[in-house]
Amino acid sequence: MTSAEPRAVGQGDATARSFGEEGARLTYGSYLRLPQLLDQQRLASEPPAHDELLFITIHQVYELWFQQVLHELEAVRAAMFAGRAWQARQLLGRVASIERVLVGQVEVLETMTPQDFLVFRARLAPASGFQSVQFREIEFLSGAKDPTFLERFTALTDDERDRLARRLAEPTLWDAFLHLLGTRGLATGSSEEITASLLAVARDRDSHGDAWDLAEALIEHDANAWLWRSRHVLMVERQIGTRSGTGGSTGGPYLRGRLPLRYFPLLWELRQHL
Question: I need a labelling partner for 3 at 20 to 30 A (CA). Which of 22, 71, 123, 207 fits?
Fold first, then answer.
């Protein structure tokens, strides 16, 4: 290469640029679009209720984390279909870390007293967390597909309805996991065959250790979802008791009815066969 030829700037080329000497082409605020981000917390109460900013911030942060979880779970599914059990396991570890944050955020919301919440709660109707499309996408992708949600929630935009319809039609994490087992010559037809294959994986970790670790990571994802639902229903009952939800659901009773939900029931049932 001659001195007259342009030099390609590579990601790992430490000598290609000198940080701090590039003017104001990119800043922390412009990269993260902070002016736009921090302008999204618009209070509906008048006069402004002190705790409404907390309520909005918590739920917007949830949606940002839901977006990241969906991003990771799609990559987990792709890795399993490609036979990369190690990568799927690694990414599920990241998902688990995020889910622990999601559970922990409930504690922040619980610093709001029921009296302070009631100051602005009526302004929220008919909006409700029940309407979180990304949360439903996570459930559908994880295996808990519920086509009736599209019928029960009439306020979906065309884009939201299309996204949920796509999630209903596409493979789940469980489908991808069974595909991975199938590529190893393990039967995945009936529930009985799947259980027998899971037992073979559990009893031969020298040969199938990565598949066993992956199964454990899937069950951790399932358990974390239960922990979040459980923590959430306690928070709701602590805030509004047995009142109906702002979106028209029965509130606490509806959420309690969702507690038995399991993404991977055969992985739970496996324990009694070991």
Answer: 22
